[in-house]
Design a protein that fits this description.
The complex is a heterodimer of chains A (394) and B (378). Chain A has 394 residues and is an alpha/beta fold. Chain A has two domains: 208 residues, Glycogen Phosphorylase B (Rossmann fold), CATH 3.40.50.2000; 176 residues, Glycogen Phosphorylase B (Rossmann fold), CATH 3.40.50.2000. Helices cover 45% and strands 14% of the residues of chain A. Chain A is built from 15 helices and 13 strands. A seven-stranded parallel β-sheet of chain A has the order 3-2-1-4-5-6-7, sandwiched between helices. Chain A has a six-stranded parallel β-sheet with strand order 10-9-8-11-12-13, with helices on both faces. In chain A, helix 8 crosses helix 13 and helix 11 packs across helix 14. The model of chain A has no long low-confidence stretch (mean pLDDT 92). By secondary structure, chain B is of the alpha/beta class. Chain B contains twelve helices and 13 strands. In chain B, the strands form two sheets. Chain B has a seven-stranded parallel β-sheet with strand order 3-2-1-4-5-6-7, with helices on both faces. Chain B has a six-stranded parallel β-sheet with strand order 10-9-8-11-12-13, sandwiched between helices. Chain B starts with 11 loop residues before the first strand and ends with a helix. Classes of the chains: A alpha/beta (394), B alpha/beta (378).
Chain lengths: 394, 378
Amino acid sequence: MTEKNKQHVVIDARVVVANQSHGIARYADEFVRNLRNIATPFRFTLLVTKSSPLLNQEWPEHIKFQVLKTSWISWLGQFEMLWYLNKLKPDLFHSPSFIVPFLSDVPLVTTIHDLNHVVLSENYSMFHRLYYSVLLARKIKKAKAVITVSGFSQQEIVNFFHTSHEHVKVIHNGISETFQNPPMQNDVNLKRILQKYELPDKYILSIGNKKPHKNIARLVEAWCKSNVSLPLVLLSDFDPSLLGLAEKFHKKHNLHFLRFVPNEALPAIYAGADLFVYPSIYEGFGFPPLEAAACGVPVVVSNCSSLPEVMKDCALYIDPSNIEEIAKTLEKAIFDSPERKERTLRGRELAKSYSWAKAAEATHGVYQRVLAQLDSLNTKSVKSRAALQEPSDG
Amino acid sequence: MVELKFADPSKKIIGLNGRFLVAQRTGVQRSAYQLFRTVIEQGTQFNFILFTGESELFAPEWQRPNVQLVTSQLSQRTVVRNHFWEQVELPRLAKRYKVDLLHSPANLAPLRFKGKSIVNIHDLCFLVQPAWFSFSFRLIYRWLVPKIARNSSLVITNSNYSKNDILSLLKLNVDRIRLTYWSVDPIFHEFNKPYETRDDRIIFVGSLEPRKNLRGLLKGFSLYKQRYPSSKTRLTVVGCENPLFADAGISGADISADVDFRGYISDRELAELFGSSKALVYPSFYEGFGFPPLEAMAAGTPVVTSRTSSLPEVVGNAALLVDPYSQEDIAEKIAKALNPAVALELIAAGEKQVKHFSWQQVGEHMIDIYSEILTQPT
């Protein structure tokens, strides 16, 4: 079969931009990079932006690029997508996020990571809700398949969009290889990176941002009230109110705000920590605790949303709304060393079971299934049309 | 224009703002001086131009193949002239000598300098507690320092506590702040007498100003004396008044017969004094780093200090921490520190703690920061 005759899948990879590493960007980046190792009967075109880091890498013959002017999240992007979809005429379009082509009727597979825009409606505008319940809902029903990243999100999607479990396929995310072989304690490299980012000798690490569902404020309060004297390092937006709180408990000198950390330094920042805490209230998957576990760091996470499903028995769990419980768990995690060691070992094993290669394989499987269905429909309709036309011919 | 005679003129040039070298040496100036000595020694991949007063021209520490001096008429007494030099003449000089990066290590820097620059901001005490400073100092600092911070490529500070203050009070982006701890001069390791042979004396070191809480210490000390009337311990206060700061507010009534005042003394004398004393009591309200506790630890002397500001960060678990507002607490901790069993524990912990800090490391980090900025696009 020549390249031209192969079935054509277009993937929107515009979300991958340099120096940005939110969940969706990481998902799209890892997925397409692992896609190139898969033996496939299809050909692919990736939609990217001009400055996409993907363009600097080597790609096999059957994966091509189409540079778009618009960014992944824009209204003009809808028109540009329509233009290129008409030009490329794909057999299937995969959107890695909640941004799908509304103007085209191309067969669609979409990945919905979580529903935080509608579940945590207090953080978002009415517009987000309307977008999900009106625009996106229509597309989700028409989509050939929906992919999501955890059983928790699957249930959320089924409930919100009134669709079926068969329609929403769960494919767990992987963990980047950089985290699978982190620098070890006492490694010179590790020391250098920790020095570069001005980290203390021992510390508790947490990652988040200013959005309330990341729940950083409660963590800081619990840390202040606990007997734990280790510094708390936040890779999160700066928030002056946290400093006021820490000052009251004479811990302001121990609350560290990290500056921007590029992805390649992240494993060392995890590996240097004595404990990783992730008090988030809502996650579709939640990379950070798994990454921390991969780097051999004990983990404390919330007992809600997707986190227990992903972390299994390799973390200590907290009720994220209960400050006292968070404080007690911090103390337990720091002072209780034998159990700590065992859980850390299990965590490394657990992290190994999440791989991007597997995720890419499973996603490719979804393409195959959907395209096969489309094929059989097409041949059926061709046959039935032929059957209809026969009598008049005769 | 002085002709520069660098051994290798092809290296990048780092301009060092040496205005502070003509001022009286207290914490800020001592650390800036040590910092400069460290970076010129370790930064052999750079050339340095030290812009300073004529008094430094023959100082042996600046005689190195990668260092050249450009001097102007500056002196300790001409404060207004020094400000003028820093704000107007220094940026012109830096431009004329084509420096690639200008480093100002003592809070102040030229506002009109357009090139790459870094500034060390030691603490923001003048914003947190303006009443502790003289009127003119306050006026200049409160107006200038926030502008300087915004104008600089990077701000360097010396404790996480000060970094947090800079984040919240100057609203600087966290990516533009770097942290380097200071270390102690090796001289403080040299006069370390065994504990049993030391004089029955506790000491306090610092400029006589309200921030250092000498008043609280004097009251706490007399309370201690009341509780332990048999104690023969004396208190020696090292440091003198400084016109930059407000009056320390100490009256004759606070000073008992057991207190000696030593005024300003050299590092060597101070090291000897630390090495022969039984404790440093340093209940300062606010420090951006606070050298005396670390210097005392280097000299094998137990430390009592405040649990406020950056002090607990620097001393770790190796000191007795007090509430500086409580004379009761100060008296109690003086008694505790003078208990030989506690003292020996503190001495051992202190010697360990002081090893966390080294000028070698400070230098390495500074050189990394220089390289980082020099490779950034303008």
